[in-house]
From TrEMBL:
It is found in: Cell membrane. InterPro entries: ABC_transp_permease. It comes from Hungatella hathewayi WAL-18680. This is ABC transporter permease. Its main location: membrane.
Length: 318
C-alpha cells in the first residue's frame, strides 16, 4: 500500500469516527498526564455530568438538522425543573403528575418557538432568543428568584440515584433518550423529513413534505427533551435553581457542533457531549483556573467545527 492510499485510508477512518476520535485522543492524553482520569469513579462522574447537556443536545440536534437553531432550550429546561419543584412543594401535586405537567410545559415552549419561526417567519436565532428571555422572566416571577427546595427522595432519585449501586440513573435515562432519538431520526418518516428540510426546505416542499409541520414538531421535540433534561438537572441539584440552565443552550449547541451531527447521526451528538465533558473534567483534574477553562472550551468548539468544515471540503473535493 503506497503513501497516498495510507493517507486516504487514515482520513476515511478519522472522518467516520469524528468526535469519537477526539474522545480517544483526550482519554489517551489525560491518562498520561493524570492517573485519576481513567479510574472507574471518574468515568462514572463524567457520564453523570454530561447527562443533562446530552439530553438537551439530543433535542437541539433535531432543530439543527432541520436547518434552524434554538437558543431557548436552556431556559426551557430550567422552566420545567422549577415548575416541577413548585408543583410538588407548594401545590402538593403528586410526583408523577407534577413531572408530566412540567414536561408538557416544556413541549409547549418548544411548540411556541416553532410557531414563531414558521408562521411569523422570524429567524430562529432571534425568535428563540426572544422566547428565552420570556421564559427567564417567568421563572424569576414564579420562583421569586429563590431556589425551590424540599423535594422528595423519589424525585431526587432521577438525578442522584443508582441502579445496582453502580450505574447512575441519569445515565440510563440519557441512553434511553438517545436510543429513541436514533430510531426517530433513522427509521421514521419524520426523521427523514427533518434531514430533507434541513438540506433544502423548498425542494422538500416541492417533493410533497409538510415543511411547516415538520419544523414545528422538531421544535416541540426540542422543548420536550429540554424539559426532561431540566427534570434530571433539578433532581441532581436537589432543588429548582432559577439560574441553573443559563449556559445549557450554548453547551447543547456546542455538543451538536463538536459532534458533527450534520452527518445525520444522533450518536455524534452523544460523542460531542462526551468530548465536552471529558475536556471539562480533565481541566478540573489538572487544576486549571475556571476562567481559563472557558477559554480552552471555547477554543475546543472553534477547532472542532473548523476540522469538521475541513473534512467536509475534502470529502466534497473527492
Amino acid at each position: 500500500m503506497d503513501r497516498k492510499s495510507i493517507k486516504s485510508k487514515a482520513f476515511s477512518i478519522a472522518n467516520n469516527m469524528g468526535a469519537w476520535l477526539l474522545i480517544i485522543v483526550i482519554i489517551v492524553l489525560m491518562a498520561f498526564v493524570n492517573d485519576k482520569f481513567l479510574t472507574v469513579s471518574n468515568i462514572i462522574n463524567v457520564l453523570r455530568q454530561v447527562c443533562v447537556v446530552a439530553i438537551c443536545a439530543l433535542g437541539v440536534s433535531f432543530v439543527v438538522l432541520g436547518g434552524e437553531i434554538d437558543l431557548s432550550s436552556g431556559m426551557a429546561a430550567t422552566f420545567a425543573g422549577c415548575n416541577a419543584a413548585l408543583l410538588i412543594t407548594r401545590l402538593g401535586v403528586p410526583l408523577v403528575p407534577a413531572i408530566l405537567l412540567a414536561v408538557l410545559l416544556g413541549a409547549v415552549v418548544g411548540t411556541m418557538s416553532g410557531c414563531i419561526v414558521t408562521f411569523w417567519k422570524i429567524p430562529s436565532f432571534i425568535g428563540t432568543l426572544g422566547v428565552q428571555y420570556i421564559i427567564q422572566g417567568l421563572i424569576l416571577i414564579t420562583t421569586n428568584s429563590m431556589p425551590v427546595t424540599g423535594l422528595p427522595e423519589g424525585f431526587l432519585f432521577l438525578g442522584r440515584g443508582y441502579v445496582a449501586n453502580i450505574i447512575p440513573v441519569p445515565v440510563i435515562i440519557m441512553l434511553v433518550f438517545f436510543a429513541i432519538g436514533t430510531f426517530l431520526l433513522k427509521y421514521t418518516t419524520f426523521g427523514r423529513s427533518v434531514i430533507a428540510v434541513g438540506e433544502n426546505a423548498e425542494a422538500a416542499a416541492l417533493s410533497g413534505l409538510k415543511v411547516v409541520q415538520t419544523k414545528v414538531l422538531m421544535f416541540t421535540i426540542c422543548g420536550f427533551c429540554s424539559a426532561c433534561a431540566g427534570i434530571v438537572m433539578t433532581a441532581r441539584l436537589s432543588s429548582g435553581q432559577p439560574s441553573s440552565g443559563s449556559d445549557m443552550a450554548l453547551q447543547a449547541l456546542a455538543a451538536v457542533y463538536i459532534g458533527g451531527t450534520f452527518k445525520g447521526s444522533m450518536l455524534n451528538t452523544l460523542a460531542g457531549a462526551l468530548a465536552w465533558g471529558f475536556v471539562n473534567n480533565g481541566l478540573n483534574l489538572l487544576g486549571v483556573n475556571a476562567y481559563w477553562q472557558k477559554i480552552v472550551l471555547g477554543a475546543v468548539i472553534v477547532v472542532a467545527v473548523l476540522f469538521d468544515s475541513i473534512r467536509a471540503k475534502i470529502s466534497t473535493a473527492k
